[in-house]
Design brief:
Elements: H1 3-9, E1 14-17, E2 22-26, H2 31-41, E3 50-53, H3 56-62, H4 68-77, E4 82-87, H5 94-97, E5 103-108, E6 121-125, H6 142-147, E7 150-151, E8 163-166, H7 170-173, E9 175-180, H8 186-193, E10 196-198, H9 201-211, H10 215-226, E11 232-236, H11 242-250, E12 255-260, H12 263-273, E13 277-282, E14 294-300, H13 308-321, E15 322-333, H14 356-365, E16 368-376, E17 379-386
Parallel strand pairs: 1-7, 3-5, 4-8, 9-10, 11-12, 11-14, 12-13, 14-15
Antiparallel strand pairs: 1-2, 2-6, 3-6, 4-5, 8-9, 15-17, 16-17
Helix pairs in contact: 10-11, 13-14
The structure holds S-adenosylmethionine.
Amino acid sequence: MSAFETVIGRGGVVLFPSDTVYGLACDPASQVAIEHLYALKGRPPDKAAAIMFFDLEAALYALPELGPNTRRALSALMPGAVTALLPNPARRFALSARADPQTLGLRVVSVPALVGVQVPVLQSSANLSGGADARRLSEVAPAIRAGADLVIDGGELPGVASTVVDLRDYEQEGVWSVRRLGAVDEDELARRLGGRFRFEPGTYAAMVTDTLPGYAELQGQVALAAGQGVQRILELGIGTGETAARLLEQNPRAQITGVDESPAMLAAAAARLGERLVAAHAGLLQEPLPEGRFDLVVSALAVHHLEADEKALLFSRVRERLAPDGRFVLGDVVVPQSPDAAVVELTDGYDKPSSVAEQLEWLRAAGFEARVSWTLRDLAVLVARPL
Ligand SMILES: C[S@@+](CC[C@H](N)C(=O)[O-])C[C@H]1O[C@@H](n2cnc3c(N)ncnc32)[C@H](O)[C@@H]1O
């Protein structure tokens, strides 16, 4: 048995090199050891910690309730710099879960210094709570180094924490989302996972700023094209309410109905918009739209997730929901005339932009008079009015 396993088995805390940053590990079944680990880094007791395995087979064996899709996903991601949030109906490793015993955070790493370790550990990064991650042993706070029962030096590590990916709806629905951006980016996750990516409110702003140059300008141009004096607004793909907040500000008497496939994004929009979000529909834009007549139907950066025929059908449905003097404003990623103008980072299978010309044609076929109000490289705003 390695020194690592011996110290963990005795209820000690080990300072060790993971595949990302330095971490602290202890026996996940020992309340005393966990309290020692939390105390060393000043981690609030209500915060959950992930369980780490050093061998994928051992992890899958320890979690027999996981379904085949989730097992395949874990095999595609791990070992690697990813923490997976998994359903935990059997409440395994209950001491790690804290407030949410139905969720388990899982890491599986491949670390040269710890090859062959079979025991799982409860782990957390080796920094004072809220402090910077340690890339070298010398960057770990002296009090943590002194308080650990075993210190393993793994030299210099990559230094970027793991990406936290939520797989709790993956088994049944095939959807996943990113809860914390880290060492593995969204495109890499998409390549390995397949299934359907879902936006997550906590990481949305950072992700959109990273991948979508021109986001702020697009929002401004959508608001400009939407105009003032409207009362009933329907937003398709409302997300965290970024677009909606602007529209409500410039239309003080307006109320908004939002549609989004992600209940978490809708909840963020509801918290932000309050009572002015009069209805929030969790559903797909490929499905029938909420009932009602609207002065403005608006969508920013959501319709490009639909296939070409789905977009054309959506435009007909939008036409049916618009008041005769209403307007439809569509701000989105498009296929630019020159391929060199494409700068938005797209994810295969999730982002499916069409050209401006195609979308104008579908809008006209749906009974609109349509024009372009703004373009910037591969972004455009189209405005359509019922004929
Ligand atoms: C890039 S965000 C845009 C959000 C907001 N309009 C903004 O500009 O910040 C796209 C939103 O559309 C939602 N979405 C993507 N595909 C969808 C679909 N097929 N049906 C419904 N909502 C979808 C996502 O969940 C996400 O909230």
